[in-house]
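[job 0412] stage=fold_complex status=start
inputs:
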Amino acid sequence: MNIVIGISEMRVSRNPEEVLVTFALGSCVGLTLFDPSTGIGGLIHAMLPLSKIDPVKAANNPYMFVDTGVPALMQTLFDLGAQKKHLIAKVAGASTIMDDKGIFNIGERNHTVLRKVLWKNNILIAGEDVGGNSPRTVYLHMNTGKTILKMAGQEREL
Amino acid sequence: MAFNILVVDDSETVRAVVKKTLDIAGVPVKTLFQAENGLKGLEILRTEWVDLVLADINMPVMGGVAMVEEIKSDTDLAGIPVVIISTEGSATRIQQLRDKGISGFLRKPFTPEDLKKLVEELLGKADTHG
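[job 0412] stage=fold_complex status=done
writing structure:
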């Protein structure tokens, strides 16, 4: 069963029958975290890098921002029983869609902040596909822990 | 088994990044030796057992290239794999270094993931965890 994660949303699961999916990642960044030792995983679709531009919105929905959403995702996974040392991180998105001239560099900034948050939390990225100007769809299959990227009509494992 | 790794770089920040990367990548490190130039690196190599050397090129006192030449001309040290981590990354330069006997090259700025991949390739993924 597909569980759809919209923009500025996050879901976690430990149900092997579920597939977490987020569609149309543009300059937003998608992150999957999966702990194979417990089968617990989650997916976030964050829109903007830093919560300081709107702390009120961040308080209402931390998943809008990378710097608040990713730690919140991690904490939710830990509360379920996932262990940090086992987490496998996969990243997709951060493209230049709607920002052809690179004026805002949202995608690049999302990616940079995400890398910083993961590094600070001692997590290395096991696979990623970022940049460019094509939209991406990302699936986290809870039965295998595999993250599948769909882009330009092609599918591959991250 | 755990490995002894020597990091030779005059930047304390780079040495710290290497240390943290090896740690969170789960590379089993017994001792991480650190040196701020090639000469100090050689001193450590001649007194300690080292399985892998990660070295910068541009350093005061003795740079990475001179250090590699010393290592490869010393029969006791010649077998130790050396990875160069540097901003000097032209194809010619890398080939020159490979001719001198280096086992790998990583361009600065590097990501921790790049370093993890390279170290695992050299030390054997079966010996790492995480």
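[job 0412] summary: The radius of gyration of chain B is 13 Å.
[job 0412] exit 0
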